[in-house]
Amino acid sequence: MKLAFFDAKPYDKPSFDRYAQQKGIKVKYFETKLNEDTVDLANGYDGVCVFVNDTVNAAVIDRLWEMKVGIVALRCAGFNNVDMKHAHGKVHVVRVPAYSPYAVAEHTMALLLTSIRRIHKAYIRTKDFNFSLSGLTGFDLHGKTVGVIGTGRIGRVFVDICRGFGMKVLAYDRYPAPITDEAVRYVPLEELFAESDIISLHCPLTEDTHHIIDAAALEKCKRGVVILNTSRGALVDAEALLFAIKSRKVGAACLDVYEEESDLFFEDNSGHILEDDTLARLISMPNVIVTSHQAFLTEEALENIAETTVQNIVDLTENGQCANELCYRCGDTKDCKTERCF
Ligand code: NAD
Q1: Fewer CB within 10 A of the end CB, N or C, for the chain?
Q2: Which residue in 59, 62, 92, 94 sits closest to 76, CA to CA?
Q3: Binding-site residues, ligand 1, Cβ < 6 A
């Protein structure tokens, strides 16, 4: 089994080398992202391994099919970059549904605490022996209301963390989970917008959730609301967010993902002029923190990603089926057998 590994970073290699070697998979690492221009690099391989900003659109899928590359192994949970309908019958698409929900949920809380306690400002001040506290006043999380959109694996861990801080939770999910905690309530989206002091996004990017935070949604929010997005950039209309920050409607924003991130994030662009004015203006704001799609990046997550991805490929090649194969209809696992699928 030969695997073409796109958008490879130094931190990917140790764990993938170890697990792939154990299972006899030969991996060729390409630094470039997979897209229509680079897909021919996969010629002669049995599968491609891709990450969040690789492009697996209809043209790429057709070319993979022509070259008899039968597997697209996503080394992530989200699959909004794959044209699932087009993939059906041409390539098997497998993913890593859960590698460490703690990594992403904990990063979300790290961003929130950094922002509201002004740690990012304090760190720079004390490095310069500036011990002034002016402008560093924060607020307690205890007793505040957090609105969590998407209560899957990551959303539920984030809810637990918030409960540990004594926060009330308003949740919204297309498929609500059973809850016993009195401080957690599923509510309609409108109520979540109106009542939350902090809103955190943990749903996938789909047609339904694209720009779920737009100008109209922000208009319904409390003045001073804190927006957290560690899920997918296009859940938030970045220009509407910028406008709401300038008008003081939004009190702070923490973004690990950004709608137009694919050409910027994960790379060192420090020597370049940033062409994206919206991102540049957001980053310039004192109450905005941007991290570069870093939420997943823990040792535990990298180990789990490599182990599951390699096992997915072994399951497909040796058994012809894999529990983590995506269903093109519902986007869940292929054998999901839920009523939404069959
Ligand atoms: P999950 O599938 O376990 O949970 C997603 C939840 O969203 C489910 O409960 C689902 O019912 C709900 N949902 C689906 N459509 C919805 C809609 N229209 N409105 C409201 N809720 C809806 O996924 P997860 O493992 O918790 O991951 C959540 C997201 O986090 C992923 O889709 C991915 O985009 C993102 N993610 C980001 C990073 C990062 O490094 N920043 C890492 C991993 C995952």
Answers
A1: C
A2: 94
A3: 77-78, 98, 101, 104, 149-155, 172-175, 202-206, 208-209, 230-232, 256-257, 293, 295-296
**Which of 39-43, 62-66, 166-170, 333-337 shows the lowest mean pLDDT across its residues?**
333-337
Residue 267's pLDDT band (cuts 50, 70, 90): confident
Are 2-99+299-319 and 101-290 in the same CATH fold? yes
Half-sphere exposure of 334 (CA within 13 A, CB side): 19
Q: Taking all residues of the chain, what is their mean pLDDT, rounded to a whole number?
A: 94
Rounded to the nearest whole angstrom, what is the distance from the C-alpha of residue 204 to the centroid of ligand 1?
Answer: 4
Mean pLDDT for the stretch of residues 157-185: 95
Asked if pLDDT for residue 331 goes beyond 80, the answer is: no
Ligand 1, atom 16, residue with closest C-alpha: 174
Distance (angstroms) between ligand 1 centre and the Cα of 231 equals 7
- Which candidate in 86, 107, 118, 261 is catalytic? 261
Report the pLDDT value the prediction gives residue 337, as an integer from 0 to 100. Answer: 52
CA 299 / ligand 1 centre spacing (Å): 21
Is the pLDDT at 327 greater than 90? The verdict is no
Which CATH code is given to the segment(s) 101-290?
3.40.50.720
Q: Sorting pLDDT into bands at 50, 70 and 90, what band is 336?
A: low
Q: What is the DSSP string of 156-200?
A: HHHHHHHHHTT-EEEEE-SSPPP---TTEEE--HHHHHHH-SEEE
Give the H/E segment covering residue 105: helix 101-116
* Amino acid 139: pLDDT: 98
How far are the Cα atoms of 119, 204, 325 from residue 58, in angstroms, in the given order? Answer: 44, 21, 18
> Looking at the domain covering 2-99+299-319, what would its CATH class be?
alpha beta
Residue ranges of the domains in the chain? Answer: 2-99+299-319, 101-290
From 99, 156, 160, 203, the mutation candidate for ligand 1 (largest count of ligand atoms within 8 A of CB) is: 203
* Tokens coding 1: 């089994």
